Amino acid sequence: MCRKILITTDGSAVSRMTACAGVSFAQQMGAEALVLFVAPEYQYPIYVEIIPPSYPSEEEYRAAMERAGSEHVQPILDACAKKAVRAEGMTAFAESAALKIIDVAARHGCDLIFIGSHGRSGWGQLLLGSVTNKVLSHTRIPVLVHRLVKEPLPD
């Protein structure tokens, strides 16, 4: 039985639909949820002697990504609240989203990683997203891959 489920989001419509399925699954299992958004690390401009004034500082970038992460995580936390699923949300920074997902799941004692795969037909069914594929191949924590039957409408 699962006690704590890591639900990932990247803010996309596909991710939101997957996260909603993850919330329902957590409710059915009587588990709590940890909702995670992984932001890319700050990238310093290369081959530039002087950083352009419009280029954000590392602090500005991190603050903007924290805000974006909160915006992506909050609707999922709201869905958890509506279904009486205890949940917390977080934004993490990493070069590799897959490895960060695995690390966060392990550090927070998650029993399961709930992650999405794009719903495709034909040859596309054979392909998982690169993040999902890396999570599957690098973790010992059980992973539930949720595949959408149809693509969501564009935002």
TrEMBL record:
CDD domains tied to this protein: USP-like (cd00293)
Domain UspA: 1-145
InterPro entries in UniProt: Rossmann-like_a/b/a_fold (IPR014729), Universal_stress_UspA (IPR006015), UspA (IPR006016)
Key word ATP-binding present: yes
Keywords: ATP-binding, Nucleotide-binding
Pfam family, one: Usp
Keyword ATP-binding: yes
Top-rank taxon, per record: Bacteria
Gene Ontology MF terms: ATP binding
Coiled-coil ranges from the UniProt annotation: none
PANTHER family, per the entry: STRESS RESPONSE PROTEIN NHAX, UNIVERSAL STRESS PROTEIN RV2623
Family: Belongs to the universal stress protein A family.
Name used for this protein in its record: Nucleotide-binding universal stress UspA family protein
